[in-house]
Write a structure and sequence with these properties.
This protein is of the alpha+beta class and about 375 residues long. Helix content is about 45%, strand content about 15%. It is globular and about 60 Å long.
Amino acid sequence: MKTEYTILQHVDWEHLTQSGPTARITRCPPSATRLMAMPFSIEQRGKSPRQGSRVHAVLGGVEECIILELRSIISDVSGLLEGVIAMNIQELVGYINATHTANFVLQGKYATGENQGAYALSDDTGAGYVLKWNTRPPWLRSIHRAQQITNHLLQRGMPVPTYILADTRADGVTYWVQTALIGSPPEELLLSHAEQLLHLIDLQEAQALASGSNWSEYVRAVVFARHSGWEDTLAGYSDDTRTVLTRLKRLVARKEHVTLRSDDICHGDMGVDNVLVDGNQVSGIVDWDAGGDGDRALDLSILLFDSYHAIRIRHVLHDRIVKISGTDAYCMYLAYNILGRLDWSIRHHAPEAVIEGVAHAHHMLADAEAFC
């Protein structure tokens, strides 16, 4: 059995071998280089895989070898994206249908979303579903946790999807399918949307499920212990990002003693792209894959980061965050969001996005320095 992958971006192989380390992957089976198409052969480093080219890999570890080999090389070269291959989704849908006695039909890829993205499915009744996947088998534990969280929130009246199946193939491809909700992410969050979200997010209050994933601990580790590596990304990129980093450190100085709430359910990535609206109505909150315990004010702070330009929404969200968790927590969440967004822009987007992100960070920091 073979699986087909497609190159999503051009990789300058010659440049990589000259300027960056080319780590050898010991987990690759001995026959891996003979099974790979020539652009991926270790003996053919001078060849550059081109966008749109395809490679077939025999199941049983070789696909993982390709993924690890590419990522180990490009992760050491600043400015290149990680994860340059994507599996044939139609083949994955066929596998899911055969394994789970399902009848899903692939309808296409959603326009929003980074990483591998999300894919629209339907069944023979016309019901809609969402398929997501990655190549990290341990992520299955996160999906099972998300299933527990969303089932609990559904009982409390929150419009969230139902995770109907999740599994990992023998080759390490991990996939999950959830129900599709009506609506789409708003181009601009309205004040009425923000007010509804305040009510919905309050349904997360004091509902922590002792899930084994604590967002408050993670925020502290990122802000004070350089846990994520985001601080190093900013420090190494430019004078502008180093200036932002200096202001962030000053903002959270002497706040290590602050205790963050951990008794709420926390989405962890509640940006505007994960909010669905149908007209003036918030119709869903999606992508709970990384959900856990923590402080619901962190979720509000992510929405605030996305909507800071809207003054009325800014004040509504800011005031609620401070009411729930206090000013010190607000400042820590601001630092966390700026670090994460700038790191992502540096590693995945064009320089113009970094410039825009730096300006946005300085705007938020100028306001926060007046009261933090």
